Amino acid sequence: MEGIVLVIVLVAGLASGGLIGYYFRKLFAARQVDSAERKAEELLNEAKNKQKELLLDAKDKAIKIIDQAKQEEESRRKEINYLQQRVEKREAVFDKKLLELESKQQELAQKAEKVEKYKEEIIKIKEAQFEKLEKIAQLTQEEAKAVLLENIEVRMKDELVTRVKKLEQESTEVLENRAKELLSSVIQRCAASHAAETTTTVVNLPTDEMKGRIIGREGRNIKALEQLTGVEIVIDDTPEAILVSGFSPIRRHLAKRALDKLIADGRIHPGRIEEAVEEAKKELALDIKEAGEDTAREVGIAGLDPKLIQILGRLKYRTSYGQNQLKHALEVSYLSGLLAAELKANVMVAKKGGLLHDIGKAVDHEVQGGHPQIGYDILKKFGLPEEIAYIALGHHEDNPKTLEAIIVKVADAISGSRVGARKDTYEDYLQRLNELEDVATSFEGVEKVYAIQAGREVRVFVLPDQVDDWQAVKLARDIADKIESELKYPGEIKVNVIREKRIIEYARYL
Prior knowledge:
Layout: H1 2-137, H2 141-169, H3 172-189, E1 200-204, H4 209-215, H5 220-229, E2 232-234, E3 241-245, H6 249-265, H7 270-298, H8 306-313, E4 319-320, E5 323-324, H9 325-342, H10 347-356, H11 371-381, H12 386-394, H13 403-417, H14 426-441, E6 446-452, E7 457-462, H15 469-486, E8 494-499
């Protein structure tokens, strides 16, 4: 029994313990559920708050975007309104100009009609005047032209007959003297040109930077060049040019050739300068020889010694009173031959003597004495006959002993006295040209005047609106008469009156 009771008590204890445990467990579970719900509620509230904040931020951004879009739309609307107003103004201006153009076209059309009417009236008046003139003169227009031409022909015939009679009255001696004067004038006008270069020669440079390279460090390049050539190199502010100064033309041209080589090569130093000077000497010697050969060949003289030809060629680089001596010798040789043929003298002696009469000037910078004696000694040294060698002396004597020497002296004077060669100073030469231009400019209707060909021609340009073709003919005659009466000149001067009218218009792309 006790065992049963013990089991019952044990079972009852276990049952009550289970009940108590279940109660505590349920109580703990209920507390846990309440805590989870609270956390969930807190998380839910927090999420709602964040959602509200996000919604507020999104609304603010949306409001800003809408405001910005409204501002841009307003700005575009204003710009469109401005462009529309501008287009409307342009259309109004265009319409106004179009109306003005149409109005001007109408005015021009009306004026054109008036011009045509005036033209017809002028033609009628002109015809009426012609009819009146024909009635008064009792001649038709063609008959009047014929009478006018006949009167001009009679007048010219009378003038020609008068001049022929005047010429017939002159004696034969006067005519011969006049012919000689005209021949001398023609010979002077056919003379060769002369060189203006006397003591300086210009060397052109590609750039001003080249001046510094020519001078070199501490002036060593320019000193080397001056020592090798015997000239003075003048470097100043003249753009892209330097001067070679020296009394010897050959030395100047030697320096110029050397400088041209150095400038073309680009290497400028004392060693290269020596090479360039040597090359220039060889080229210059060859050029001098070729110049002498060409000159002798041009006048038809052969058989001269090559060394004498070399000395003759040196005259290419010699000037006297501004006249190139080689061209002067060539000219004197031609003139001497022509005069010798006219005077029945020895043409070849005169031509050789004329070519070599100033041969002493080729070396008068190096040999003491006057060039006539130096020339005579040179010609005798190379075995030329006395009659030719004497010309070098005789052309400077007052009374030459031979006819050929007299001829060469005359030819030398002709070559030296031509316009612009010698005796006349540069100022006198310019003054004579200015006087020619002033005479032509003094007439009405003259626009501009140019004296050309050393004063042998005057070109007169007239205003075409003031001077017609018939007046131009009369103007040329009047200018020639005034030149004859007021100026002194050798030979004749050609008066060339030019009447030219130019119409210029431009086509433009609009």
